[in-house]
Amino acid sequence: MGKGFIFGLLLGWAVAATGQSAYVYPDAQLRWNEAIVHVEDGLVREGNDWRGAVLFTVQGDRIFRGFSTSSFDLVYTVRDGKLCRGDSHFSDDVVYTFRAPRVYLGDSEYLLDLVYNLRDEPLHHGEVVSVFKEDSGSAYDRVVSIQGRFTTAEWFALMLAQGLL
Prior knowledge:
Elements: H1 3-18, E1 21-25, E2 37-40, E3 43-46, E4 54-59, E5 62-65, E6 74-79, E7 82-85, E8 94-99, E9 102-105, E10 114-120, E11 128-133, E12 142-148, H2 152-161
Antiparallel strand pairs: 1-2, 1-12, 2-3, 3-4, 4-5, 5-6, 6-7, 7-8, 8-9, 9-10, 10-11, 11-12
């Protein structure tokens, strides 16, 4: 093996290791075989590996349907934590508002419009965030747990992929 091959192998490994990914689980047990969807390098896929169908592609603050970045497949844009239909700038087209750690319905931050809240899992501090219904923190109101790092646009895409938004 040449030095170039080894350098290329190490460089490829380093790039792959820095790729951002997050996995969604139905509970805080984090069983690999129970991963519902995951995002890796902007691709939101079913299941836990590369064989799952691509449901959404996230590029920056834009969310596209399937494996595409065509303007014809643009579904949502995230602006200032607000999920907007298509590329719209109208407040009527704001579907959800994300103000950490809470998610509200529409262009609102009123408690009556609270849909979800995100909480750090104490057993996996800094690695796992759980999504709960409304303002609850009860294990019975946990919707999903997300392991890994994700952007606001990726979070929206992960929740959309599960039909939770």
